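re: ur question from the group chat, yeah i did fold both. here u go
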Amino acid sequence: MSVLTETYVLHNGVKIPKVGFGTWQIPNGEVAYNSVSYALEVGYRHVDTAYVYGNEESVGKAIRESGIPRDQIFVTSKLPADVKTYDGTFDYFERTLRNLGMDYLDLYLIHWPWPWNEKGKDYKKENIEVWRAMEELYRSGRIRAIGVSNFDVEYLQVLMDNCNVKPMVNQIRFFIGNTQEEITQFCQQNGILVEAYSPLATGRLIENDAIKRIADKYNRTVAQICIRYVLQRNALPLPKSTTPSRIKENADVDFEISAEDMEYLNSLKNTVE
């Protein structure tokens, strides 16, 4: 499973494993601990969590007890969407480190451009303040890379116009039929890595007949096609599962989708309702 050992290089030179293990909606406790432990056992070296997932304690425990040196595992967490102040950023960063039982993060992201219940409101000024704190944490060496999540072109451009350190990552909802071309192209033109959460559209692509036909052609599962597709779009997939067989299957993506089939997959629209 060589793809698990392959990396992208962020614009600051930090290497990030090409496939990450996502933990959204995995409950804290035994389920999160066992899922992350198994993912590490089968070769994942990149784990993505967030303060609001409520599972940082179990994720951190699984990483610490894996027997794998900390510097060989790439760990991402996220600042809650509701935290939009300079001081609050430091406060919640410390909380995340305490939860994880770690003294540094590999990647820290602003989870959303605006608070959860104020979607679409203008928080550009506040995000600049938050980013100022992120830059300080980055310069202190306690975070190896910084970025954002769910930012569109407008929000990202404002940040770039007012920062000293350009975001290294933008983690967005990205899957076959929903590749957010405007923001994806903007990021790739500006050296910002696109990370794809929900690469299977939270499982809803599994029953898609068009993708099933491609999967049958390659003797692969729909999930494997979806994850491989993201990689061939030069983005970083974050598949999530709590089932050991699927965790392993999602990492077995060392094959190539032809240019013709990629074109076909790119043409699919409205793959989920």
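okk and heres the other one u asked abt
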Amino acid sequence: MINFKGDEDAYFLPLSNKHGLSTLLPSKLFTSSIFSFAMRVKVDWDEMASDEVGGMLAINGQHTGILCRKTENGDLFLQCDMWALQKSVENPVSIYCKIEDGTSNDPHWKVDKKDDWYNIVMVVDRDKQKLKFQVNDKYIERDIDGDMVKYIDAMIWLGCCNGLSTCPPEYRWNFKGTISGVGIFLYDILSQDRIEFEREFSQSGEEQVDTDIIPQFTYGKTLGSFFSGTYQDGDFGHREIIFMSNLKEVNSFKIYDESNNGNHFVKYNDEWI
């Protein structure tokens, strides 16, 4: 796992590989009809200032990805953002999950602050025009009105939304907290995991699967192994994975890609760029 302190801690995922070592280029994320971000994180809420945003896994520009937010009055949110082009105007499409102190009377789309670690999944489905967001046992989706803005020249960041020195500090949105798992997939990992779980449920001796009684916060083999950090070769089949790591194979320069696709997150350094 990596502890981000909100200053210069930032990693980026190179979109291409000059040595041809990547078997699935990260740049394909920008043209894929579907992609998913998955993370296991712990936010250092006490270190965040009021009206501060932290980018955990994001595409820079009109920042798209998974973020945390502390408002001026101290409200805490986990959120996913994407930007869509609507009648020639770029507008954000956002989903918010409020972090409560455990006393809320509305449990539908709120998570207790005492849940230190959050299992988070964001899915963008351009074909079905859906934005999906799940935090632990809470799930919600929104329709996307318009096409996702183009990110051909953008970068994928871990620990901020934009770490480039040319980006004004107020828009870098550096993260404060700990990340213990990251995955970037070119398919709807939530839907696939649900299918896997229902298949496992039906094979457990139940004559018929009633999907209404299956708890949402119950993972199939894919997300179960991902969030626990116990996945092995073959757990994800031959599906398209751009990057996956439980952040154990890390050195001073990079986070190694455990999907065997050769896409390593690199520690950002102005001189290296």
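fwiw on the second one: Residues 130 and 143 are 5 Å apart (CA to CA). The domain at 2-191+237-267 is CATH 2.60.120.200 (Jelly Rolls). idk if thats what u expected
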